[in-house]
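FW: tagging you since you asked about this chain on Friday. Here's the raw sequence from the shared folder, copied in full. Didn't touch anything.
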Amino acid sequence: MASKATTSQANRIQDFFTSPQFGAICGVLGPSIGFLSIGLAIFLSPWFIWATNALSDLGHPTMLGGINGVPGLNPAAPVFNIGLIVTGLVTIVFGIHLLLFFWIQKSPIGLIGAIITILSMAFLSAVGVFHEGILWPHAIAAMGFFFSLFAATLIIGIAIALQRSTRYEGIITLAMGIGIAVTLTIWFMGLMPWSGAAIPEIILAIAGIIWIIPVSIRMYRFGYAS
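HL: got it, structure written out here
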């Protein structure tokens, strides 16, 4: 009797972790962890200035006092780096459920977008693993994250805008994709009125991740149904 009860409980736990509701929870939880860790890292870094720093400065293990400040152990670094790693891993779970959603809906465009979303979140975790002190791997991971995030946002936006039930979420996502394109263009053309990368980086992060929230809410309420 106890064995049957234990098996039943184990099955319920397994069903939950494979359910769209769990994927939706990860879709909300992942970005929340990311933005909370960035906020806490900034709180721990009174030297941080939006107009002159990059967000990755928060993850440099010896960036204490700013770029030209006194070197020392940076208490914000583990908060920032571990936050990005966890955010990427948790949101990858959402991406896997998103992949299943588009598989059930037989949407090739959506499948491509979901795969790129997973890749983008893997790059985000890599940004935390290869902090700013590990220069080239960090730069590759950061650029990979931003550009794959841009591609994922546009492609997912198109895929869900083509479905009547998710048209509202699709319009939001496409608008965010356009916002990313404009920000990247202004940034790389050197037209920003400030020297630091933190402001365009946070704009890109918000625009590229915020669409996950309404999509997750819908997934939680309606599962994989169109």
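FW: The CA atoms of residues 150 and 181 lie 7 Å apart.
HL: agreed, and The mean pLDDT is 87.
FW: great, closing this out.
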